[in-house]
């Protein structure tokens, strides 16, 4: 069969942004040209192929997008599109059961899939010499998958998807909100009237015949787009695509799905008492238009204008004036056949949602009367430009965008038109769509409140119906995997073995320059000119570690306050100045440092650094802003108090570090410690602990080192200080391995955290420890993931790793498992961890070595990844060539070395187990795990007084 090129388009796309921004009191036009070249053609069987060449890194991204999402499902058979995404990672005739995941990991690649209302995408990024293997594997899924389906595989994957639903919906505060919205916004049977994950009852009833029907209808080449982006030879790509995909027969023609916008003939109000939430939440939703409707771009802009920045009408009324919530959101969401516009907020404790709704309408009235300025619109547009370049910084980002635009706009280059239309939106357009779709229109509102606080819901609300699956001990039976026998499908080529890797993979870490200012501030620099962008960070050692133990959360509050204006700029003026440059500046406090980060177009770097200088040296210290920031922090702490993952983390750290250690508490602090903090405490922290002798500047981007060094002269005035670091002793609660339990009534999932304090972050064995952990829990190819998810179906994911702290780096293994296999999951974790060191073989070491060495090609692509390399060097006192030195150690590392590392830093006899789950059904089952009787912990007890039950 010859390839027939139905259409050939070699497009050299150019996009000119004409953006107006107010600088220096006048207007200046800024133009940026973006070019993206690609080659698109269509095989005779209907498969559309898009190729983009990018030789900047020795890697390639492959994406296959099938035009089938939850909107193509039938009532009674919902969730199939998402479920099918899972199934395709299990098996295919020639690649073999479990080998897709294994092969990508062995090749040093990354992969995933995603399903939404309108499509399903599968993607991989691998070293470029593995392109043919990826095409072999993806084509095997497209043409040689369905015969491998077994009853065991079907049932096992049902449990995985159930875990995902419980973890993301049933066991999560406000998790049912999307279901309530969709089922009441759209009429029964509408393709958007169910959520993507679907009904668990529908899923449980699915049969092998159902799966085959779905595959045969939707997974043909004529319903797919294949994108290949990266370091490739275009002619070779065409040969390989024809070789692996050209023989597939097209399926029946797919009918076009027409827009079906929602229609509300009246305003609808629903409420839900959420047992996993402790703050009232309001969301109001209006029907709008489908994707690429002429009004969709103006609606997108409307969402940003209403809430983007301190100047926006809704923020001013709700957050600043009425102080009802820490923030407010508004956004338009246009999908393939319908769209919605949402406004909402998670309020402060005890706020009546009727007052919040009234404030929203007051903010909208102010928006109507006061409008917004050209400068506001220009700020949003230039921010889009910066965001666009950041999104195009990886070959995966390009592949994904090309696939989606080709599928839903019929043209992979529609990104140009998309951005043009956004840039061409006017103030008149925005007001027009506001008046058409929002003002005076019917809406749907959801009031989610804590149990027992029904008096906070909108008046006239109807109780919402939500579906939660009952957790019954022993309900799910995992059938024995007997495999499936089938006669292999004939192929015109030999698909029985993986094609060899092509050529020799070679790459070098980027060149790193380093210097130091006279005041001690270190400077690290990498030149990267693939995009006209820069990214940088100024990291100051200290962070939470320098907090007063009675006022933990000081550093975390300080990071917020530094962004609340300067001595010369109000918070609004600072935000406007950053926005008009299309830049991003943020301050973040962690356990051991505070980092000021910036990202911008290279041409705006000096102006952005001017603002960073002002933020660093001229804090505003506004008492009113401090009160707002503090109240917002307490609101966040209150939310995390009912999050099972946060509870597990907090209890785990308390037991791990022990009473008196500052890391026994979250970086944000507790309600008690944050209530103790005053504005003077922030000033005191700043004056004592901000010193250039503890600071490092990390720069990556399209400016050379002399230019960057010259820009840093402004920091010469920063005087060094003697900063006193406290000493803390790690006092893990008990000796030996043991288990702690936190009761989370009616939990649908149990959260497991397992680990011990291993070493300090500058330990020369840290890299070797990460190597030793790789096979255990580094990703989807690891033992934990394979056994707990792929083989048992207990969880959506299970992982392990080392967190790098200078003061006590923990080794941690973790998962969220379905409640009725809590005991089985603990037993399996213990079995794997107990035997991991004993079973680590020379073959394991060889496979680990190959995979890690190959995966290093993924480390140098994005600006953020390169800044991370520089931050590792400065934070953990690593040599400039640590990557190459780590590689050299890896190449010489033996299985005996790995077993020694495992015994020393992952010793199973010293591991602590923390379980957060439903006490009435799970606690007694954990009595005989070999870890002793569970020690019951009250997470609200700040002193962690442990009581045995």
CATH architecture assignment name of the largest domain = 2-Layer Sandwich
CATH class of the largest domain: Alpha Beta
State the share of residues found in helices, binned by percent.
25-40%
Summed over residues and divided by their number, the pLDDT gives a mean of 90
Largest sheet: 7 strands, mixed
> Looking at the structure, what is the overall shape?
globular
Terminus-to-terminus distance? 72 Å
CATH topology of the largest domain: Cytochrome Bc1 Complex, Chain A, domain 1
Task: Give the topology.
Blueprint: E1 9-23, E2 26-42, E3 48-53, E4 59-66, H1 80-87, H2 99-106, E5 110-115, E6 120-127, H3 131-143, H4 151-170, H5 177-185, H6 200-205, H7 208-218, E7 224-230, H8 234-245, E8 268-274, E9 281-287, H9 296-307, H10 313-321, E10 329-334, E11 339-346, H11 353-370, H12 374-391, H13 395-409, H14 414-423, H15 427-437, E12 444-450, E13 462-463, E14 513-516, E15 522-527, E16 533-541, H16 554-561, H17 571-580, E17 584-589, E18 593-601, H18 605-617, H19 623-640, H20 644-657, H21 671-675, H22 679-689, E19 695-701, H23 705-711, E20 738-743, E21 749-759, H24 766-777, H25 783-791, E22 795-802, E23 809-818, H26 822-839, H27 842-855, H28 863-875, H29 882-892, H30 895-905, E24 912-917, H31 919-922, E25 935-936, E26 947-948
Parallel strand pairs: 3-7, 8-12, 8-13, 15-19, 20-24, 20-25
Antiparallel strand pairs: 1-2, 2-3, 4-6, 4-7, 5-6, 9-11, 9-12, 10-11, 14-15, 16-18, 16-19, 17-18, 21-23, 21-24, 22-23, 25-26
Helix pairs in contact: 3-8, 9-15, 10-11, 16-22, 24-27, 24-30, 25-26
Family: Belongs to the peptidase M16 family.
Domain Peptidase M16 C-terminal: 206-381, 676-850
Domain Peptidase M16 N-terminal: 49-169, 532-649
């Amino acid at each position: 069969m010859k390839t027939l090129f139905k259409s050939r388009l070699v497009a050299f796309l150019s996009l000119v942004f004409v953006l107006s921004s107010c600088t220096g009191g006048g207007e200046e036009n800024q133009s940026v040209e973006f070019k993206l070249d690609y080659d698109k053609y269509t095989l005779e069987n209907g498969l559309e192929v898009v190729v983009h060449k990018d030789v900047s890194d020795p890697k390639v991204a492959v994406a296959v997008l099938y035009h089938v999402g939850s909107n193509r499902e039938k009532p009674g058979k919902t969730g199939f599109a998402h479920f099918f995404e899972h199934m395709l990672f299990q098996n295919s005739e020639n690649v073999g059961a479990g080998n897709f995941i294994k092969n990508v990991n062995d090749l040093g690649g990354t992969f995933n899939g995603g399903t939404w209302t309108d499509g399903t995408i599968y993607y991989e990024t691998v070293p470029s010499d593995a392109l043919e293997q990826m095409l072999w594997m993806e084509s095997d899924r497209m043409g040689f998958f369905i015969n491998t389906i077994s009853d065991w595989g079907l049932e096992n994957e049902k449990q995985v998807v159930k875990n995902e639903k419980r973890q993301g919906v049933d066991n999560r505060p406000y998790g049912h909100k999307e279901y309530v919205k969709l089922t009441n916004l759209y009429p029964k049977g509408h393709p958007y009237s169910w959520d993507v994950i679907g009904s668990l009852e529908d899923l449980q009833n699915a049969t092998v015949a159902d799966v085959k029907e779905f595959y045969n209808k939707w997974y043909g080449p004529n319903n797919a787009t294949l994108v290949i982006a990266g370091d490739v030879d275009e002619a070779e790509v065409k040969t390989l695509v024809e070789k692996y995909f050209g023989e597939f027969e097209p399926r029946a023609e797919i009918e076009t799905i027409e827009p079906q916008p929602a229609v509300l003939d009246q305003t609808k109000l629903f409420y839900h008492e959420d047992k996993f939430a402790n703050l009232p939440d309001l969301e109001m939703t209006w029907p709008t238009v489908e994707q690429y409707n002429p009004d969709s771009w103006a609606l997108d802009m409307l969402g940003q204008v209403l809430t983007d920045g301190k100047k926006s009408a809704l923020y001013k009324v709700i957050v600043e004036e009425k102080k009802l919530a820490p923030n407010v959101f508004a956004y338009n969401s246009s999908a393939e056949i319908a769209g919605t516009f949402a406004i909402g907020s998670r309020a402060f404790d005890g706020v009546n949602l009727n007052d919040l709704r009234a404030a929203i309408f007051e903010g909208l009235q102010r928006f109507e009367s006061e409008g917004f300025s050209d400068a506001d619109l220009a700020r949003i547009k230039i921010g889009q430009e910066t965001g666009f370049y950041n999104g195009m910084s990886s070959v995966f980002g390009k592949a994904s965008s090309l696939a989606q635009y080709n599928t839903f706009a019929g043209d992979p280059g529609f990104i140009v038109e998309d951005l043009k239309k956004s840039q061409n939106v006017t103030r008149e357009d925005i007001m027009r769509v506001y008046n058409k779709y929002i003002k005076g229109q019917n809406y749907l509102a959801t009031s989610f409140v804590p149990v027992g606080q029904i008096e906070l819901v909108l008046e006239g609300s109807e109780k919402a119906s939500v579906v939660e699956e009952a957790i019954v001990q022993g309900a799910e039976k995992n059938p024995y995997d007997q495999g499936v026998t089938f006669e292999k499908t004939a192929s015109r080529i030999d698909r029985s073995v993986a094609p060899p890797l092509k050529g020799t993979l070679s790459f070098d870490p980027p060149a790193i320059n380093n210097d130091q200012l006279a005041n001690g501030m270190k400077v690290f620099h990498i030149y990267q000119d693939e995009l006209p962008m820069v990214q940088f960070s100024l990291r100051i050692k200290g962070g939470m570690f320098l907090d007063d133990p009675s006022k933990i959360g000081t550093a975390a509050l300080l990071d917020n306050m530094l962004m609340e204006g300067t001595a010369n700029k109000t918070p609004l003026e600072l935000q406007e100045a950053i926005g008009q440059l299309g830049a991003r500046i943020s301050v973040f406090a962690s356990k051991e440092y505070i980092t000021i980060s910036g990202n911008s177009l290279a041409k705006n770097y000096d102006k952005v650094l001017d603002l960073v200088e002002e933020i660093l040296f001229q804090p505003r210290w506004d008492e009113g802003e401090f009160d707002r920031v503090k109240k917002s922090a307490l609101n966040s702490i209150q939310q995390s108090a009912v999050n099972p993952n946060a509870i597990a983390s907090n209890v785990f750290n308390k037991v791990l570090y022990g009473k008196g250690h500052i890391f026994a508490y979250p970086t944000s602090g507790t309600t008690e410690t944050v209530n103790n903090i005053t504005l003077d405490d922030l000033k005191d922290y700043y004056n004592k602990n901000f010193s250039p002798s503890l600071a490092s500047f990390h720069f990556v981007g399209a400016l050379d080192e002399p230019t960057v060094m010259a820009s840093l002269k402004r920091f010469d005035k920063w005087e060094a200080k003697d900063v006193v670091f406290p000493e803390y002793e790690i006092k893990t609660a008990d000796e030996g391995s043991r288990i702690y339990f936190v009761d989370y009534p009616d939990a649908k999932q149990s959260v497991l955290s397992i680990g011990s304090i291993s070493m300090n972050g500058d330990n020369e064995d840290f890299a070797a420890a990460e190597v030793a952990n790789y096979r255990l829990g580094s990703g989807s190819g690891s033992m934990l993931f394979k056994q707990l998810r792929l083989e048992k179906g207990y969880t959506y994911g299970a992982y392990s790793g080392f967190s790098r702290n200078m003061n006590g780096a923990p080794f941690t293994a973790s998962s969220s498992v379905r409640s009725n296999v809590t005991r089985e999951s603990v037993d399996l974790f213990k079995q794997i961890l107990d035997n991991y060191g004993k079973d680590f073989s020379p073959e394991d070491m060889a496979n680990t070595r190959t995979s890690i060495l190959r995966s290093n090609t993924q480390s140098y692509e994005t600006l953020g990844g390169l800044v991370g390399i520089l931050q590792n060097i400065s934070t953990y006192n690593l040599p400039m060539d640590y990557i190459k030195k780590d590689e050299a150690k890896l190449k010489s590392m033996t299985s005996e070395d790995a077993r020694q590392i495992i015994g020393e830093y992952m010793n199973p006899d010293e591991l602590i187990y923390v379980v957060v789950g439903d006490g009435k059904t799970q606690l007694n089952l954990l009595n005989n795990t070999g870890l002793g009787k569970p020690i019951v912990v009250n997470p609200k007890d700040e002193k962690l007084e442990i009581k045995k039950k």
